[in-house]
Design goal:
Elements: E1 2-3, E2 6-7, H1 13-22, E3 32-38, E4 45-51, E5 62-64, H2 66-76, E6 80-84, H3 88-92, E7 101-103, H4 109-114, H5 117-124, E8 132-136, H6 141-152, E9 158-161, H7 164-171
Parallel strand pairs: 5-9, 6-7, 6-8, 8-9
Antiparallel strand pairs: 1-2, 3-4
């Protein structure tokens, strides 16, 4: 395996990949990846080297907890966009909405993030050029997918709220539903 221009022999390829992620490596940092896998023909272990461009890497997605979200909202609200990725009908049927969020359902997130800055501001009344983008949903699963997609697009400082709206409401009795 070539990592940052150096070749390393990895008897445990997953450990090498984990080390690469720890250092925020991308496929551009690798020239080739050598991995042990089970052959589909004879079910024997074999080592195969593939071109790194043929391997998909997902950037590490970071979560934040409710306390961190509260701190961000208090200290740096002008550089923060909160995006609720739940369906509008889900929010309308007595599911609370975190104040300050914009609603972009998960099914629409690709199109929304592909908008240029002016179109995004016009449609969502928020600037796209912020320092932090935090996705929320009911319990954190869909928001993690949205954050992963945004990170794949190269949007920096993307996070998702661990535990989602449920965690937010549990910790904040004063959160008002819209």
């Amino acid at each position: 395996m070539a990592l940052f221009g150096r070749s390393i022999c990895a008897s445990r390829p997953m450990a090498a990949v984990a080390a690469a992620f720890k250092n925020q490596a991308t496929t551009a940092d690798f020239t080739a990846i050598s991995a042990r896998c089970v052959s589909s023909v004879n079910r024997q272990w074999r080592t195969e080297t593939v071109d790194a461009s043929q391997v998909a890497f997902t950037p590490a997605i970071k979560s934040i907890d409710v306390d961190e979200l509260q701190r961000l909202r208090k200290d740096d609200e002008n550089n923060l966009i909160l995006v609720d990725v739940r369906e509008r009908t889900e929010i309308d049927h007595s599911n609370p909405f975190i104040p300050g969020c914009i609603n972009i359902p998960l099914g629409s997130i690709q199109a929304a993030l592909a908008l240029n800055r002016c179109e995004f501001r016009k449609k969502y009344r928020k600037p796209m050029d912020v320092d932090k983008l935090v996705f929320v949903c009911c319990i954190g699963e869909r928001s993690a997918l949205a954050a992963e997609y945004a990170a794949r697009l190269g949007i920096a400082n993307t996070r998702f709220l661990q535990g989602g709206v449920e965690a937010y409401l549990t910790q904040n009795d004063n959160a008002a539903a819209m």
